[in-house]
Design goal:
single chain, Nucleoside Triphosphate Pyrophosphohydrolase, four-stranded mixed β-sheet
Length: 149
């Protein structure tokens, strides 16, 4: 199996009422069946913030571009995935750059969300609720660091 490396941006997105949005991944991508934060690969010519805005918008329909994004963690992870373009199964080594974004002018129930093909559902969770979810290893480490787990 071929190995590829990717730089990944992701966002811990919180609503004004303190809820965290997570999406349930489908079985084809990285960390299948897990609940995770929105994010994805940095494309050539993009900086981290531009990639973060694009990925969150593509995956959730939420425009975070007007809200501050604070880098909260740099980490690494590994997983297998199927490439969309070729259906090739590859091993992925990832460098994660995770940002925290607070949508400080809307409660969770006011934020319009439209998830993409990589996810099967989404939910806004109270922080204590995430302890019962199947989370990917990088999110477990992140949420422990943030005091959520």
């Amino acid at each position: 199996m071929r190995t590829i490396e990717r730089d990944i941006v992701s966002g811990v997105i919180l609503s004004k009422d303190g809820k965290l949005i997570l999406a349930h991944k489908n079985d084809n991508g990285v960390y299948p069946g897990c609940w995770g934060i929105f994010g994805g690969g940095i494309e050539k010519g993009e900086n981290q913030r531009t990639a973060l805005n694009r990925e969150v918008l593509e995956e959730s329909g939420i425009d975070i571009s007007k809200y501050p994004a604070v880098l909260v963690q740099e980490s690494t992870g590994e997983s297998e995935k199927t490439l969309k373009e070729t259906s090739e199964r590859v091993f992925v080594k990832m460098n994660f750059f995770t940002y925290k974004v607070i949508i400080d002018d809307m409660d969770a129930n006011s934020i319009k969300v439209t998830i993409d093909h990589e996810h099967i559902e989404y939910n806004w969770f109270e922080i204590p609720e995430i302890k019962s979810l199947k989370l990917p290893p990088p999110s477990i480490d992140l949420f422990k660091k943030l005091g959520y787990l």
